[in-house]
Amino acid sequence: MRYQIAHTTTYTYSLPVILQPHLVRLRPRCDGTQSLSAFSLKVSPAPANASPLIDLDGNTPIKLWFPPETVTHLEIAVLSQVETYRTNPFNFLLDPWAIQLPIDYPLSLVSQLQPYLSAADRPIDPIALQLSQELSHTVHNDTISFLSQLNQQIHQTCRHTLRETGDPLPAGLTWNQKLGSCRDFTVLFMEVCRAVGLASRFVSGYQEGEPGWERHLHAWVEVYLPGAGWRGYDPTQGLAVADRHIALVASAHPKYAAPVTGSFAPAAGVQATLKHSLSIQGL
After folding, report:
1. pLDDT at residue 119 in the model
2. With 80 as the cut, is the pLDDT of residue 212 above it?
3. Distances in Å between the alpha carbon of 172 and those of 125, 132, 149, 175?
4. How many C-beta neighbours within 10 Å does residue 220 have?
5. What is the pLDDT at residue 239?
6. At what angle do helices 182-195 and 126-138 cross, to 10 degrees?
7. If you average pLDDT over residues 196-216, what whole number do you get?
8. Which residues contact 174 (CB under 8 A, 6 or more apart)?
9. What pLDDT score does 211 carry?
């Protein structure tokens, strides 16, 4: 599939502010599942400098520095052309030792996957742990069945709500209230996977959707499967990720997949309003 994506994000400030450095994570990634053929970034007010980076996860954010002048708005507009290739999300064979849970990773692989296996600052959520144990028992510890069942259970049990700002909710809270945004469902899925030793990461991007849908940024999960590599699951829609998803960035930590991060001064007493427009067109 080939897509053209036009995405504009506008911040309006209630009082004049000076913009501090911002990190923009809106450049679609290039890998074996998709390629980026064209990309442009326009920023108003114009930054003093824009520096493309490669972060620890291999993403390619752009860092912006601004002149020390007061402004009342910030507009970031990107235009991308992307081709996606994964028509069949199930065209893989797991390594024999990864077919059943829990997976006994070789030590060399554990060291590479460690950031994706657990959160450094807290233990696994006990509600997510209980859900993982129930699912494992139901599917007789079959790895692929576990992931498919988890994907469908979140999709069918929880109600989706749009929440454009704020951090993802804790996994246990999302499961208890059976309500959340796509990023809340993503964090819940990740936490349940990590409870059974499956490495997982948070992905920010776009999904083609249906004609007439209002477009928004989307989030889903990638799970590292020995023999298959990173494979995507979208619990919001109950789908295995294929060529109708367009990934921007992925990270073990959701905050490092946020589309735009930055600050302004003075912050006290200033209200910031966010608006966006997003168009995804097939080519």
Report:
1. 73
2. no
3. 6, 12, 18, 5
4. 27
5. 95
6. 70
7. 87
8. 158, 180, 184, 185, 187, 188
9. 67
